[in-house]
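Note to self: keep these together.
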Amino acid sequence: MLANVMVVIAAVVVLLVIPGGAAPPSAAPPSPPPTSRAVPTVTGTAPPSSPPSPAVDLPSAESPPPVVASPEFARQVGANEAGLVPVLMYHRIMKKRLASIDRTPSQVRQELERLARDGYVPITAQEFVTGRIHIPAGRHPVVLTFDDGHPSHFALGDDGLPVKDTAVGIIYQVAKRYPGFRPVATFWVNSQPFGLRGEREQSRAVRWLASRGFEVANHTWSHSYLPGLSKKRIAEQLVRIERLLKKLGTGPSDTVALPFGAMPAKRSTVQSGKWDGTKFAFKGVFLAGAEPSSSPFAEDFDWRAIQRVQSNGKKGECRRWCSQYWLEWLNKHPGRRYTSDGDPERISVPKGLRGNIGHEWKQRINAY
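Structure:
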C-alpha cells in the first residue's frame, strides 16, 4: 500500500513539525503476502485488584449480553465482520498544540463524540488482535490507542477521578453522554508511564486502568528507533518494559506499538524473543499509519504489521491519510466497514465475502 512505503525519516522528525500542516504518517514496510497463523488464544494476567473507587460511579466497560445471530438476523443488522476497523492513533493532548500530531482536548472530545454518534464502540488493541469483538449488533468497533504514556493521557485528581482534559477523562465524559460508547482504550507506554517517576504512583495508575478494562502495554523502554538497533538491543528495549509492567501489576503485553512505526529489517525481532532470561511474545504488532486495519478475521489480516490512522484533520498529507478523511470515507462506504452481528461465537458476513475469512475462522462463519 502507498502509505506503507513512505520514508521513515518523516516519522522521526514529525514531532518537530508545527501545527500549520498535518504530519505524514510514519513509514511502515510493505505488507507481505498473507501467511497462515495460529488461532489467537485469550491468555494473560487477570486484572489486578482495583484501588478504592471514588464516590462517583464511572461508566462501565462491560460488554453487552451476547445474542445468537441467525443468517436472517445478520442480514437485518447488515453484519459484515470481514470489514475494515479504524485503529486511531493519538499522541499528546494539549491546550496549545506544539506539533502537528498533538490534539487539543476539544479536538479529541469532538472526534470521540462523532464516533459515538456514528455507531462506533471502543475495544482495546488486545481484544482486537484476539478476535474478542463483543459489541452490540449493528455497531462498529474502533480501537483508541495512545502512544508514549504522556501525562496528558491519564492522571487522577484529588477526588480520585480522572482529570477532565486527559484522554481517560475525555473518554469517560463521552461514555457518560453516550451510554453505548464503551470506555476503554490502549495505552502504549515507555519507561515512565504517564510521566510518573515513583513506582508507587506508576503502580496505582496502571492498576487503576487495568481494573477498569483499559490496556497498558509495550512501546519500548526508551522509544528507540528499532531499525538502528541490534537484535539484542531490540529485545532489551521490549523486555525492560515487560518487566516494569509486571512489577506494576499488569502484563504480559499481548500488543506492541513500534516507535515511529519503524519496522526492523528482520521483522521477527519485534514479534517474540528474550533478553537476560526473560521472554516476550506479542499477538499484535502495530505501525503508525495510515489507513484502517483489516478485520482480525480476514484472510489478509497480518498481525505482524497492523495499520493505524493518525487522529488529525484533512490538511497536507492528511488529506488522504488521517482520521477525518477515513471516518468520512467509511461513512460513505458502509459496506466496507466492520459491522457486528452481536454474537461473539459467530462471524457473520454476506455470502459474497465468505472467501475473505481466514481459514482458522472458517468453522465460525455465519453467511447470509
